[in-house]
Specification:
By secondary structure, the protein is mainly alpha-helical. The protein contains 39 helices and twelve strands. A hairpin with a 2-residue loop joins strand 1 and strand 2. The termini are far apart.
Length: about 1050
């Protein structure tokens, strides 16, 4: 028989005994526990009977199983066939009904159910070879069918009242327990028959079957009683509507929470910290502050102490009564921009768009200003999580309105000038022991479990081994559960001895080159308190789970989609051991379950949570897709009349919609525990996963339709680069960037360029050039020419025209050679390059050369792509701008009119055309028409969610029109608006200087001489400061104005840069 624990009915799998109600209302945890038990049984079968294990692991459905039963595969006696028709098929049909309900109540992986059906089919085929075995097996299925029929009767009653989620939770637990009991028996039979085909159904088997059926009957009876009691309560209950202080504005329900995770029922302790947060961020403290005064708190502490979880609990409980709570991941600017977009979308703000993220913070800030100025304005809290340096968020991303701010950081320096500071310390001994008991003994009731003195002492020693850190406690308990034998007298003490014998320093294989948790109290290279437990956790994982964990360590710690790892349809080299897990969705899922069971990762999925402290509210969970931003609600069990079987065309969507996250401490510990050669293989695998997921950009085509996907993936790509920078030096065997990484970064650079993040694009370019030199990449290839095209675009945007010309000339030389050799792709790339070079000549004042390049580009394009309206529109846009600069306004307007045919109304491209038309009318002296075009550009830019710098350029032009129309008051209003917008842009120092210069002129016209002098003085100081930076070789935008607005014109359209 396979295992004593299986005989006794304990499905441990690292999660404890699985029985109805033992796990609570956490749907994802119930599913994880069930899948973990399935995975353990699968491994047990593979060990005992490799042939049956391999066969059962294939895809099996009810249809395929029924076909097998009806086929000649059952070639035993005639009585076997008779039993198959009279007993097995009816059992199979009621089993299918039960499985259908399991899918609706718990949404488990269908691949796990495939294994269940595969084990059943293997058992049928094995037992029918011997009549005695077959008869005993059929008796088992008859008895199981009777139990399932009783369960079905209760299910029918439950269908009449689909509103009670607690009973549906219990139904899911009951069905999963029934399936596990049956699967245990199937695996037991197959494993025993492998050793002794004639000794499987002996007296021990009879006892085992009786115990299993008793357990099954007990579970079903318990469920039936719960349904009866609930029906009785419903018949006598007086309905009462709770008092809900909610409001709806602009289609948004307040209080509103835009958070990355749902509430966590497992949060423990920290009540004193939460109370102190509530006091410092409370209404009384808030009301004492003046307009524009930010109320802020810094929550700091060492890595793994629970800062993020405390903030998460504080946000969900909302005891202070905020009207809106927003969460901003502050480890990278890319994440800040992405979360700003999610906030703007959740508020239904005009101009918010998933396809344009650069202006999202401006849109949110504008809403915050409106709240401050309104008598009924909303009181808001913004949580900046994981901020390493205050300069990453201040002043750019800290509101200048009256609101509340909570910052979490490992550093006590990441604070605002008047922030209150709260340090989070590890648990005290009593709290730490309570948490360990709660986790060990499955629930709150376990906290007060009385242990013997020796067991209590051993538990205290284990607690101190992890310095009472919450993260360490969870990992320690995850190690303890599968290794503790409850039948022994001192299971905790025995584990403590095991831990002492097997733990050793984790980071002995590679010297630590950085302080991986950035703890100020510990020197770089000094042993970390959690090193031993990391080592023991990692060595307890199988190869596939360790491979997935390694890849996760190279990504950003949050928002990692499991679906990215599914490369089943992609070509994977057979020698690539790390990527081998990505061939099978089931193997990926098993690896994820193992990592969850070891408390090394968490699965981020919407949970069914009743947040009793928060009252009526709309909880928005940050999800990868805009379409998936949805209100947190009760469990959605779907339509009970829907057809949800395990047919051949069924898809396993549960895992594809899930995300995982892990602590940065875990990531760093994984990387620095591996040998350099292992790190190289893991890095290459992580790169392949990202490369397959990231959208590809070809030629000069825009990626604006892929912005949402790119914005999710970019933080992970930046993390890959940082890992290579850390591991690429300082060892005898450094990690070397692959060609696939260079290709991936080429596409990412263009996305960053399009969205205006030139600083990050330039940093990636620098890394790419170094990587090309290291790997010896061919610098005469079309790929390299395309990289140079993208590099030139970034350089031009920075104003590095000489460098831009250099790389574009190099790209042109390569592409012309490839075109001459007959390459069609080089020919297409060349048309985009010639257009870009035309813009460069325009910027340098070489208008005739620019015109020739535009004409040449258009001629090449029309030969192969004449029906592409978008490219035709871009061509007309560039020609129109050139004619405008040359003073041929008639041809300019003719081209602008033509290009409008290829753009959507109120799109960014249409806004650019309206802006350009305004420039033409302004130059003609038609100020009324110019104003109309500029205002239309403003409306289109706002509707498309553009960045604030483009709007600043529009308002600056409107101010110039107002001044020329002798309306200085209106001009002052527009220019002040322009300055407010310019301050929100990352590289706006030069723009602000220009705006101050124009402001001074308007103030003089209004007779405000003192204010005019002050504005002029500030403008000149800013100009001289930036000029000095430029002369010293620094990187800033063009800072010196020459009386024109060419800088703003280039800023508006990236095709003109």
């Amino acid at each position: 028989m396979i295992a004593e624990s299986t005989r006794s009915g304990s499905i441990s799998g690292g999660m404890g005994t699985l029985s109805p109600g033992s796990i609570g209302n956490n749907r994802e945890l119930r599913k994880t526990s069930w899948l973990l038990a399935i995975s353990n049984l699968k491994e047990a079968l593979k060990r005992a009977s490799p042939v049956s294990g391999a066969k059962a692991s294939r895809k099996h459905t009810f249809q395929s199983l029924e076909q097998a039963i009806n086929s000649t595969k059952l070639d035993g006696s005639s009585s076997c066939k008779l039993n198959a028709q009279s007993d097995i098929l009816p059992f199979l049909r009621i089993l299918e009904t039960t499985a259908d309900m399991l899918l609706k109540t718990m949404a488990p992986s269908k691949t796990a159910l495939y294994f269940f059906l595969g084990a059943l089919q293997c058992t049928i085929e094995m037992t029918q070879q011997y009549l005695k075995n077959w008869q005993s097996f059929v008796d088992l299925l008859r008895e199981a069918r009777q139990k399932l029929e009783k369960l079905e009767a209760v299910m029918k009653r439950l269908r009449e009242d689909p509103d009670d989620s607690s009973r549906y939770n219990l139904l899911g637990d009951t069905i999963s327990a029934v399936f596990l009991i049956l699967l245990e028996l199937f695996v037991d039979i197959l494993s025993t028959m492998r050793r002794n085909p004639f000794g499987v159904f002996d007296d021990n088997w009879t006892k085992t079957r009786e115990n299993a059926m008793k357990r099954m009957g007990k579970d079903i009876f318990h469920f039936s009683e719960m349904v009866n009691q609930a029906e009785l309560r419903n018949s006598t209950r007086v309905s009462a509507q709770p008092d809900q202080s909610s409001s709806t504005e602009n289609g948004v329900t307040f209080p509103l929470k835009v958070l990355p995770w749902p509430a966590y029922n497992g949060f423990f302790g920290r009540e004193e910290v939460l109370a102190e947060l509530a006091e410092k961020l409370g209404l009384e403290n808030f009301n004492q502050r003046g307009s524009g005064d930010v109320q802020s708190v810094l929550l700091h502490g060492t890595g793994g102490v629970g800062k993020t979880q405390i903030s998460r609990a504080f946000a969900h409980r909302n005891t202070v009564g905020f009207d809106a709570i927003f969460w901003v991941r502050s480890d990278t600017e890319v994440n800040i921009m992405a979360d700003s977009t999610r906030i703007a979308l959740s508020l239904n703000l005009p101009g918010a768009s998933a396809d344009s993220q650069t202006g999202s913070w401006f849109i949110v800030t504008r809403w915050l200003h409106e709240q401050e100025s309104s008598p009924k304005g909303k009181r808001c809290l913004i949580i900046y999580d994981n901020c390493d340096d205050i300069n990453d968020i201040y002043p750019k991303y800290i509101p200048t309105t009256k609101c509340s701010v909570l910052i979490t950081s490992r550093h006590n320096s990441a604070k605002l000038a008047d922030s209150s500071i709260l340090q989070v310390l590890p648990f005290d001994r009593l709290s730490g022991l309570k948490l360990m008991k709660r986790l060990l003994y499955h629930g709150k009731e376990g906290e007060d479990k009385i242990l013997s003195s020796s067991e209590d002492k051993a538990l205290q020693e284990l607690l101190e081994k992890v310095d009472r850190l919450p993260l360490g406690i969870h990992v320690m308990v995850a190690l303890m559960i599968p290794r503790m034998n409850e039948k022994r007298r001192h299971p905790i003490r025995d584990f403590s001895k095991f831990y002492e014998e097997h733990s050793r320093q984790l980071l002995i294989r590679a010297p630590r080159r950085m302080d991986y948790d950035r703890d100020l109290d510990r020197a770089v290279g000094e042993k970390h308190i959690l090193d031993n437990i990391w080592h023991l956790s990692f060595t307890s994982l199988d190869e596939k789970a360790l491979s997935v964990l390694g890849m996760l360590a190279f990504f950003a710690p949050n928002d990692i989609s499991i679906s990215w790892f599914d490369l089943g349809s992609k070509e994977i080299p057979p020698t690539h051991k790390v990527l081998s897990v990505c061939r099978s969705l089931f193997e990926i899922e098993c690896a994820i379950i193992d990592l969850q069971g070891a408390a090394l990762i968490s699965k981020d999925i919407d949970e069914s949570v009743t947040d009793s402290d928060s009252g009526a509210s709309s909880n928005i969970i940050m999800t990868p897709s805009t379409d998936s931003i949805c209100a947190e609600s009760e469990e959605d069990f779907g339509d009970f009349n829907s057809d949800s079987d395990l047919g051949e065309n069924s898809s396993d969507t549960g895992i594809n919609s899930a995300k995982v996250s892990l602590h940065r401490l875990v990531q760093e510990a994984v990387i620095y525990s591996r040998k350099p050669a292992d790190c190289q293989a893991i890095s290459d695998a992580a790169i392949r996963v990202m490369y397959e997921a990231f959208p590809k950009q070809e030629g000069g085509m825009t990626m604006e339709s892929q912005v949402e996907t790119c914005s999710r993936l970019t933080p992970h790509i930046l993390s890959l680069v940082r890992r290579h920078q850390e591991l690429g030096h300082g060892t005898s065997n450094p990690v070397v960037p692959s060609g696939e990484l260079i290709h991936l970064l080429k596409h990412c650079i263009w996305y960053l360029y399009e969205t205006g993040d030139d600083t990050t694009a330039l940093q990636l370019l620098e890394f790419v050039y170094g990587a090309i030199d290291r790997v010896g990449m061919d610098k005469t290839s079309e790929f390299y020419a395309d990289l140079q095209y993208k590099a030139g675009s970034v350089y031009m945007n920075w104003g590095y025209l000489t460098k831009c010309r250099q790389v574009w000339e190099e790209a042109r030389h390569i592409l012309e050679g490839k075109r001459a050799a007959g390459s069609e792709s080089a020919k297409q790339q060349l048309t985009w390059l010639l257009m870009a070079m035309g813009n460069l000549e325009t910027a340098d004042g070489n208008y005739e050369t620019a015109l020739l390049l535009f004409i040449q580009s258009d001629e090449e394009r029309l030969k192969d792509d004449k029906d592409n309206m978008w490219r035709h529109a871009i061509s007309n846009m560039n020609l129109g701008r050139l004619y405008s600069i040359m003073g041929d306004y008639g041809k300019a307007m003719q081209n602008y009119k033509e290009c409008k045919k290829g753009f959507l109304p109120q799109s960014p491209s249409m806004a650019i055309v309206e802006y350009a038309c305004g420039d033409v009318e302004f130059a003609r002296g038609n100020h009324v028409r110019a104003r109309e075009h500029y205002l239309e550009a403003v409306r289109s830019f706002q509707a498309s969610g553009t960045n604030p710098a483009t709007l600043a350029s529009c308002y600056t032009k409107l101010a110039r029109v107002g001044l020329l129309e002798s309306n200085p008051q209106l001009a002052l209003k527009y220019i002040q608006r322009a300055r407010q917008l310019a301050k929100l842009h990352a590289h706006s120092q030069g723009d602000q200087a220009r705006i101050l210069h124009i402001t001074s002129t308007i103030q003089r016209v209004l007779g405000k001489d003192a204010e005019a002098e002050a504005s002029a003085r500030l403008a000149e100081q800013q100009r001289l400061k930036l000029k000095a930076i430029l002369e010293s070789g620094g990187q800033v935008e063009k800072a010196v104005w020459d009386g024109s607005e060419s800088r703003w014109d280039e800023l508006v359209c990236f095709f003109w840069r």
